[in-house]
Design a protein that fits this description.
single chain, 3 helices, 9 strands, ATAP_core_dom, Fe-S_cluster_asmbl/transfer, alpha/beta, 4-stranded mixed β-sheet, 16% helix, 2 iron, 2 sulfur cluster binding, Hypothetical Protein Aq_1857, Chain: A
Length: 124
């Protein structure tokens, strides 16, 4: 019997609740798509949008919600935990990413190195 496929990212209970709220009125196949783009002073930034899965994407389904990891972002997000940070006047998704090597001072962009899947799965 094959081993279950490990999830690319862990979605915290707080992040799952926020995703459920965002998807409350969305179509059944829609999820919160997470990707990374080149840009910002540190080199890359996280991007999110409501979308349907595309070929090659990793889909994380949970009760009442779905997070879609863009195929091009998988190696940059392996082992990441997605959470929500709540301040007095705002809330935002945050990423605890073991592939992050630095971040800019303003917090808008990060420097990421692709994960080595062989090392990640060897530790499992």
């Amino acid at each position: 019997m094959p081993l279950p496929k490990p999830s690319v990212m862990i979605v915290s209970p707080a992040a799952a609740e926020r995703v459920r709220g965002l998807l409350a009125n969305a179509a059944a196949e829609t999820g919160l798509r997470v990707s990374v783009e080149k840009g910002g002073c540190a080199g890359m930034s996280y991007k999110m949008a409501l979308a349907e899965p595309q070929k090659g994407d990793e889909v994380i389904d949970f009760e009442g919600g779905r997070v879609i990891v863009d195929a091009g972002a998988v190696l940059y997000l392996l082992g990441t935990t997605m959470d929500v940070k709540i301040d007095k006047f705002s809330s935002a998704f945050v990423f605890e990413n073991p592939n992050q090597t630095s971040a800019c001072g303003c917090g808008e962009s990060v420097e990421l190195k692709p994960a080595d899947p062989a090392q990640l799965f060897a530790a499992s």
